[in-house]
């Protein structure tokens, strides 16, 4: 039987659209992923004003990095979403776009507004930690 992560929801805290914590059972390895940036395959950041477009591209790139380690969004145990803005509406746009991609997997997350990100025109970045069954990971090229 493959071990599964557990998302922990609190009945004593405000009801929110994400879990407050995640629990990783024994027999799983943690994957610490570099920040998923909104880079195209050509290495460029598209449109410098479209938060939704950049958030979707970040998720696509995160999915690809996870796939190469035998994981998927359902294996993510924590995210940090960074958004270059001073406007809460931009944070909400990026958050809603990313949350939609995760579906029912309401992983614990932190959402932060920052002044600048690493690439020219970059508005969004997603840091992630995932957990995979170490028997699966050992069969892949994710050493």
Can you describe this structure in just a few lines?
By secondary structure, the chain is an alpha+beta fold. It has helices spanning 51-67, 88-102, 134-137; strands spanning 6-8, 21-23, 28-36, 76-84, 109-114, 124-133.
- Our estimate of the beta-strand percent is 25-35%
Structural class: alpha+beta
Helix content: 25-40%
Query: How does the overall form come out from the CA principal axes?
Result: globular
Largest sheet: 4 strands, mixed
The average pLDDT score comes to: 91
Poorly predicted residue ranges: none
Number of strands: 6
Question: Numbering strands along the chain, what is their spatial order in the largest sheet?
Answer: 3-6-4-5
Descriptors for this entry?
143 residues; 4-stranded mixed sheet; alpha+beta; 3 helices; two-stranded antiparallel sheet; globular; single chain
Topology, pairings included?
Blueprint: E1 6-8, E2 21-23, E3 28-36, H1 51-67, E4 76-84, H2 88-102, E5 109-114, E6 124-133, H3 134-137
Parallel strand pairs: 4-5
Antiparallel strand pairs: 1-2, 3-6, 4-6
Helix pairs in contact: 1-2
Structure notes:
By secondary structure, the chain is an alpha+beta fold. The protein has helices at 51-67, 88-102, 134-137; strands spanning 6-8, 21-23, 28-36, 76-84, 109-114, 124-133. It has a 4-stranded mixed β-sheet. A two-stranded antiparallel ribbon has the order 1-2. Helix 2 links the parallel strand 4 (76-84) and strand 5. The mean pLDDT is 91.
């Amino acid at each position: 039987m493959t071990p599964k992560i557990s998302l922990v929801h609190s009945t004593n805290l405000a009801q929110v659209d994400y879990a407050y914590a995640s629990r990783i059972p024994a027999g799983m390895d943690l994957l610490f992923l570099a920040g998923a940036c909104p880079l195209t395959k050509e290495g460029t950041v598209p449109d410098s004003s479209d938060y939704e477009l950049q958030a979707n591209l970040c998720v696509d790139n995160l999915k690809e990095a996870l796939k190469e380690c035998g994981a998927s969004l359902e294996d993510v145990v924590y995210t940090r979403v960074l958004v270059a803005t001073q406007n809460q509406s931009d944070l909400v746009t990026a958050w809603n776009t990313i949350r939609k991609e995760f579906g029912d997997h309401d992983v614990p997350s932190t959402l932060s507004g920052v002044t600048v990100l690493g690439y020219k025109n970059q508005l969004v970045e997603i840091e992630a930690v995932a957990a995979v069954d170490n028997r699966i990971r050992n069969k892949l090229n994710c050493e």
